[in-house]
Amino acid sequence: MSTISASGTDVPPAEVPDYPMTRAAGCPFDPPPALHTLQEQAPISRVRLWDGSTPWLVTRYEDVRTLLADPRISSESTHPHYPHQSPATKERRRQSRTFITMDDPEHARLRRMVTATFAIKQVEALRPTIQKIVDGLIDAMLAGPRPVDLVQAFALPVPSLVICALLGVPYADHDFFQANSRILVKRTSTPEQAQAATQQLIDYLDRLIGDKLAHPTDDLLSALAERVRGGELSRREAANMGMLLLIAGHETTANMIALGTLALLQHLDQLARLRESDDPKLIASTVEELLRYLTIVHTGRRRVALADIDTDGVTIRAGEGVILANDVGNRDPAAFPDPDRLDVARNPRHHVAFGFGVHQCLGQPLARVELQVVYGTLYRRIPTLRLAVDPDRIPFKHDGNVYGVYELPVTW
Amino acid sequence: MKVIVDQHKCVASGQCVLTAPEVFDQREEDGIVVLLTETPPDHLMDDTRQAAILCPAQAIWVAEQEKQEGEQ
Ligand code: SF4
């Protein structure tokens, strides 16, 4: 029979809602209203994905956090019931395996090879460099024509310049790898497009690692190349890891810069508070609040249960897919009072925008410093910054694994 | 209060160092947590507890002393 079992009862397929869900029209920052309803009425329930599979969706903050840290919950993406975001994402993961979708001990072995670069002190030491990059891009914007697309002129170049410098990837190639990485994070890309984009990026990074093996420099790819030479890492693993860091390093932060700017421009009282204060604590809490409020990785964290898990009156069976919805989790009133209000002075450090558990974002210290420098500099240096188009003309990345805007025309 | 860390569990997210830099540090070679003091002074207790809550890998434990329980 074509029914599925949810908490012991048979549910006709028609009643299982599709996921991801649609945001309300005219409400670009809030999660889809249907997610709130689920959070209130059925915090752990079935949803239907693009491939017809019906994993569990977990929507309450406390459950999201608890399950993400539960050793019975696996990240192994080769599992037949792993709930992939899209055909493109599934294809990329098949072709390019990284520690993000592996369990320990493999995950820990590979992740620990790159963690030193993202340690707090290491990243703090980069702050002056990041400040220089941000100031330079703002100088160029101020000297150039108006209006300008903030995404191309600022939001993308900031993290791209930083991650390229860290990895030792020539920034001159940014058009090439940004175009390919865009294909990989778009839900509407076909497996064939994803296959080709992955291959191009892997070939590119493999070539770079070859260069670094011959002529090492002071960067992360050279450090990985050194491990390849020492036999700790295969050349393919090194290329996969380089590709992961390159994509993750700019897609997420770039979207936080552009979408965060739009959110502040739509909440001018909050922007004024930020601009009028030079307290680094307020800048830091603004970053945390925007991370929480926007939760740009908006299609949940994807996992598979390894054992039966009883929670909230529901039994998640071994082998079933699980999606931890950190976006609506970050809007849970049980964890954040008045959660739909953007309040730059609350410091919601316990948000789950970076995930939780052993897979929590590796690059979060770098993302924090980049965003602190950006939010602490951009609006102060361009105090009259404003949208150059009607807000409802702005194209949002509803079709992306990472949420954001495709364009943000601004003037001053 | 006594603090215990498990370096095998740590995933080097740095949350503890951001929250209580006087109590936690990261190893230079791999970013894994290093405990600077097992018994932080009173004024660092809140930050230390907060670090334990925020640690994504649950690699930090805080053992409260008898007399302090109930004071939280
Ligand atoms: S917060 Fe936890 S996982 Fe992160 S560095 Fe500290 S001990 Fe390690």
UniProtKB/TrEMBL annotation, chain A:
Keyword Transmembrane helix: no
SUPFAM superfamilies from the UniProt entry: Cytochrome P450
One GO MF term: iron ion binding
Any Pfam family the entry gives: p450
Record keyword Metal-binding present: yes
Span list, region Disordered: 1-34, 72-95
Record keywords, A-Z: Heme, Iron, Metal-binding, Monooxygenase, Oxidoreductase
InterPro entries per UniProt: Cyt_P450, Cyt_P450_B, Cyt_P450_CS, Cyt_P450_sf
Entry's family note: Belongs to the cytochrome P450 family.
Listed name of the protein: Cytochrome P450
Source organism per UniProt: Kitasatospora kifunensis
Automatic annotation (TrEMBL), chain B:
Cofactor(s) the record lists: [3Fe-4S] cluster
4Fe-4S ferredoxin-type domain segment(s): 1-29
InterPro entries per record: 3Fe4S_ferredoxin, 4Fe4S_Fe-S-bd, Fe-S_cluster_ET
Gene3D superfamilies, alphabetized: 3.30.70.20
A molecular-function term among this protein's GO annotations: 3 iron, 4 sulfur cluster binding
Keywords: 3Fe-4S, Electron transport, Iron, Iron-sulfur, Metal-binding, Transport
PROSITE patterns in alphabetical order: 4FE4S_FER_2
Role of this protein: Ferredoxins are iron-sulfur proteins that transfer electrons in a wide variety of metabolic reactions.
Protein name in UniProt: Ferredoxin
